[in-house]
Design a protein that fits this description.
globular; alpha/beta; 3-stranded antiparallel β-sheet; 5-stranded mixed β-sheet; 2 domains; single chain
């Protein structure tokens, strides 16, 4: 079931009336907000730990529905693979979604999966990422804190990814979780783990997303 639940009151409502046992929080809460939610609900709480970000309210993207005719909220897919086209260029790659030009990548740029929110747009004579850059969420450095506050599971964004991608990412995270659980005070992410995730990430950079808000 997909529903809007960003606080423990909403989660408890669904638990009491529909018997849910686990809730996956959206990628818009700070670490402190996640901790507060966990402390006030009887549901297990799962959080996104690695993969794509979503700026269109977690699966309710009107842009993807407009471009492809399939709603992520109803069909369960953002930018369905059947609508994606990869067009080789002499020095890069061009991506389209159901005929719409999403982006062009040249040289060493890493092509991201063509979603409208992460495309480059021409705005007032300039072309840039107007909505969101193709940046991957990576919370590996936060793993001790996630375990400490009682997160039940780490969600890996694997939709529309290859089995090889899922296997490699989950192998890194499984090892990190096991090692951190064994020695949480001394654990530090291994450089090799970050290097592996860097190689698999979307776009050119990674972020802690909304979990880290130093200005608050």
């Amino acid at each position: 079931m997909q529903a809007s639940a960003t606080n423990y009151e909403a989660i408890e409502y669904y638990r009491e009336r529909f018997g849910i046992r686990r809730a996956v929080l959206p990628r818009v809460l700070s670490l402190a907000q996640v901790e507060h939610t966990i402390a006030h609900t009887q549901c297990e709480i799962e959080v996104f730990g690695y993969g794509s970000l979503c700026v269109m309210v977690e699966g309710r993207c009107a842009l993807s529905a407009f471009a492809t005719g399939e709603s992520p909220n109803c069909q369960g897919v953002c930018s369905p693979a059947k609508a994606v086209r990869w067009e080789p260029l002499p020095d890069g790659m061009r991506t389209r979604l159901n005929g719409f030009l999403i982006d062009e990548f040249h040289g060493d740029e890493r092509p991201g999966y063509p979603t409208l929110c992460k495309g480059r747009f021409a705005v007032d004579g300039a072309t840039y990422y107007a909505l969101e850059e193709p940046t991957s969420l990576n919370t590996l450095d936060l793993l001790p804190d996630l375990l400490r506050i009682g997160v039940a599971a780490i969600k890996i964004e694997g939709r529309q990814r290859s089995p090889a991608y899922v296997a490699q990412v989950t192998r890194v995270w499984r090892d990190a979780i096991d090692r951190c659980a064994a020695t949480p005070q001394a654990w530090r992410p291994a450089p090799a783990a970050h290097a592996e995730l860097d190689r698999l990430s979307e776009g050119q950079s990674q972020t802690l997303g909304a979990y880290s808000r130093p200005w608050r």
